[in-house]
Design goal:
Blueprint (H helix, E strand, L loop, with lengths): L4 H13 L2 H8 L3 H15 L4 E4 L2 E4 L1 H27 L6 E7 L3 H14 L4 E7 L1 H9 L5 E4 L8 E15 L14 H5 L2 E5 L4 H12 L6 E5 L2 H9 L4 E5 L4 H6 L3 E3 L6 E10 L6 H17 L12
Parallel strand pairs: 3-4, 3-5, 7-8, 7-9
Antiparallel strand pairs: 1-2, 5-11, 6-9, 6-10, 6-11
Helix pairs in contact: 1-2, 1-3, 1-4, 2-3, 5-11
Bound molecules: 2-phosphoglycolic acid.
The site of 2-phosphoglycolic acid (PGA) has 11 residues, from helix 8.
Length: 310
């Protein structure tokens, strides 16, 4: 039996989006062309790969097995294209990276510096939350990802980059600034907290931290971005919890302040994460080396202000 790479690409997209229509949109194909490719793949292989459940196309158990190998074939194919380009002496190359929304604050500065050093490279950067990053890694989309703690057992390899403290922020005239420090956690939690959405790494680290201290929020306001949380805290809507690496301009201009709350900051770490066994293109290898070496330097002035422990 034979299969083509384009059939595998279609198969992978339908498996990912559970829909012919969405897969067709993603691949710039028509919906009948997508369904025809799947039909042919099923006929040629003699395997039932999908079953319809309502309006969703779900992988069968056999389909899931095939998906695993299809990923590997497509990944190897991408690697081969990269190597061939390199052997042909094509300068520059294409870097595909995805980063946690929180990491974007320093990653864009790193990218600016990196592209000054490597003229002519093309970069695709996606900025999204933790869950979306894990989905992308599973589908072999980016060369690498910069995110918080990666989960264990996902077929991922990671390297720790640097510290990522999560701090409590407030408007500069917040009443808790008159409280003696450190402010007891329970006192802080009597306030409304503006927090990230459920799929965010910041949110899950925060919830885990509160569980460890056997306390919980009393009132929350959920927002999908660090920027909205910062604006909300600045406007006095509540206290926020964000990475220290997202608030440098606001700290410098005095629009936000860090509260010295008991058991804070939460100490997290940034990681460079990729699929195990991923073969990086030369430009991606270079970028990884650059980030490991330079990222700590970029944020080294972004330190926690000295605390008055009185
Ligand atoms: P996020 O990033 O809160 O934007 O998801 C942090 C992380 O990856 O843990």
């Amino acid at each position: 039996m034979a299969y083509s790479l384009s059939q595998l690409r279609v198969f992978e997209a339908v498996a990912q989006y559970e829909s012919y229509t969405r897969a067709a949109e993603k691949l710039f194909m028509t919906q009948p062309a997508v369904s025809m490719q799947i039909k042919q793949l099923e006929e040629d292989s003699g395997l039932a790969l999908f079953e319809r459940q309502g309006n969703k196309m779900m992988l069968t158990a056999i389909g899931k097995e095939v998906q695993h190998y299809a990923h590997r074939v497509l990944q190897a194919h991408n690697d081969l294209l990269g190597v061939m380009k390199e052997l042909k002496g094509v300068k520059g190359g294409h870097l595909v990276i995805s980063v946690a929304t929180t990491a974007n604050y320093f990653v864009t500065q790193l990218l600016a510096e990196f592209s000054r050093l490597h003229e002519g490279i093309n970069i695709t950067l996606d900025v999204t939350n933790r869950q979306a990053l894990l989905d992308q890694l599973e589908h072999h989309e980016p060369d690498m990802v910069i995110m918080g703690e990666p989960p264990k057992g996902y077929g991922l390899q990671s390297e720790r980059l640097m510290e990522n403290p999560l701090v409590v922020i407030a408007a500069p005239h917040h009443s808790l600034l008159n409280h003696s420090t450190p402010i007891p956690l329970k006192v802080a939690l009597a306030e409304r907290f503006v927090i990230r959405e459920k799929s965010s790494g910041t949110r899950s680290a925060l919830e885990r931290h509160l569980r460890e201290h056997q306390v919980s929020f009393q009132q929350t306001l959920e927002m999908r971005s660090n920027e909205s949380i910062k604006h909300a805290a600045e406007a006095g809507l509540g206290l926020g919890v964000v990475s220290l690496h997202t608030i440098q301009p606001e700290l410098e201009s005095g629009r936000l302040t860090i509260l010295d709350v008991e058991h804070f900051p939460i100490q997290r770490y940034w990681h460079i994460v990729m699929r195990k066994g991923k073969r990086l293109s030369p430009i991606a290898q270079e970028f990884k080396r650059f980030v490991l070496k330079e990222a700590p330097r970029f944020v080294e002035e972004w330190q926690l202000p000295n605390r008055d422990k009185g």
